[in-house]
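Figure 2 data, in text form.
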Amino acid sequence: MFQTHQLPPDVVQVLREEASTLEFVHLQSSNFGIKADEGRITSPYNMASTPGIGFSSELAQSSKMMSLGESFLGSNITFSSSVFILYDTGGYIGLHTDRPGCEVNALILLAGPPTVVELRPRGADESIHELLELSKRGRGLVEGGSTVPLSQPGDCVFFRSVEIPDQRRPTPEPLLLLSLCYAASIASHAG
């Protein structure tokens, strides 16, 4: 369901420096929704984000990260996006799946206290509509998932973010994360 990795401290430092030069946009929503044809769910959120433009994209396309993503997915991948995510105190994202083109997400803790990624796969007989109802009852957050610890800066988790919904509960302290998205690809990558 997931695979973990640890980035070296010098790489984390360069990523933090890149994030410090970017302008984050605050994003907030109280809406719930589904795109049934994509099996996609969205729930309320309160966070800030900005696209990565330099080293983060280079890291995502490095042979190490591409190889880790491909071994996890079991097929070739193509890099699709790099996004820094900032959760201020109390920031969160409700149960959601990522957009098509982000079949694999490598989520990396860059700064902040130890945290977890909560993954909540759908049950075998559970429809996307039933999952949405659970999310609504929990005001965006659902019990019964698996947690993957991100204990220190550089901790990274790869997971199938289009198939497996994830969520982040309100954080007691600010957190800076980096999301690297990859699409499944039939073409080989260079590098």
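Caption note: The CA atoms of residues 57 and 171 lie 26 Å apart.
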